[in-house]
Design a protein that fits this description.
Radius of gyration: 18 Å
Number of strands: 2
Order of helices and strands: EE
Low-confidence stretches: none
Structural class: mainly beta
Strand content: 25-35%
Shape: elongated
Strand order of the largest sheet: 1-2
Distance between the termini: 44 Å
C-alpha cells in the first residue's frame, strides 16, 4: 500500500553559513586512550568545519 501524502524533507535543515559557496565537512577525531581522561572519557570528537 502506497501513501498518498506528499514527500516531505527528512532530517535537519541545511546549516547556515557565512559564505554560501563553502561545503560543510564533519570531522571525526579519534581520541587516543592516554588522552581520554582529558575529554571526559570520550573515544571520538566530532566537529563541523566549513571549507
Amino acid at each position: 500500500m502506497t501513501s498518498t501524502r506528499p514527500a516531505r524533507r527528512r532530517g535537519l535543515p541545511r546549516r547556515r553559513r557565512k559564505d554560501s559557496r563553502t561545503t560543510a565537512h564533519e570531522l571525526t577525531i579519534r581520541v587516543p586512550e592516554e588522552y581520554r581522561t582529558y575529554f571526559d572519557g570520550k573515544k571520538k570528537l566530532t566537529r563541523t568545519v566549513f571549507a
